[in-house]
Amino acid sequence: FTYAGGKFTAVNFPKSNGTQATGINDKNWVTGLYLDSANVQHGFVKKGSKYTSIDVKGDTSADAYGINNAGDMTVFALNSSSDYDAFIYNGKTFKKVGYPSAGPLGSVAHATNNKGAVTGTYYDSAGDVHGWLLDAGKYYAFNDPTGCKCDTRSDGINDKLEMVGRYSTTLGGASIGFKVTTK
């Protein structure tokens, strides 16, 4: 759903078995995922009343997680090894992003801001979860403040490079929300 002016508006991909809305920009374009009639997952973008399905060629289970005001979307999907691939999608082409030192499970892109910075989650070779930021062509990794370095996820970013997300003090433990300022 979207919520504005005290009103909820449903976001339901047509003829789907379920829809999750995960991103919105200032133009009220909405991104997320849906399950088709065979329960196969796809990403989507909704502009006005028009829904467009998003799939990554060669990958499955796409999710269009976030969108900036230019319409650039963060998309992640599972590759043929069932590992995550992360992309920025401008509606025409997919540009692969993702933390360069990620382990075999790969990287997930969650959000991009209006200045082109991208944030997300990556899995190391032990399967532990870390946050990452791509800003001005350089990657940065970060972990929860308790030192666990096992379960940090970055979910959103604004134009001031402030990020929000969640972490837990044990892998798979209860989530604790965070906001971090990078500069």
Can you tell me about this structure?
By secondary structure, this protein is mostly beta strands. The chain has no helices and 17 strands. The strands form five sheets. A four-stranded antiparallel sheet has the order 3-4-5-6, with no helix packed on it. Strands 7-8-9-10 form a four-stranded antiparallel sheet, with no helix packed on it. Strand 12 and strand 13 form a beta hairpin. The model has no long low-confidence stretch (mean pLDDT 94).
Structural topology:
Layout: E1 2-4, E2 7-9, E3 18-24, E4 30-35, E5 41-47, E6 50-54, E7 60-67, E8 73-78, E9 84-89, E10 94-97, E11 107-112, E12 118-123, E13 129-135, E14 138-142, E15 152-157, E16 162-167, E17 176-181
Antiparallel strand pairs: 1-2, 3-4, 4-5, 5-6, 7-8, 8-9, 9-10, 11-12, 12-13, 13-14, 15-16, 16-17
Quick recap:
With 183 residues, the protein is mainly β. The protein is built from no helices and 17 strands.
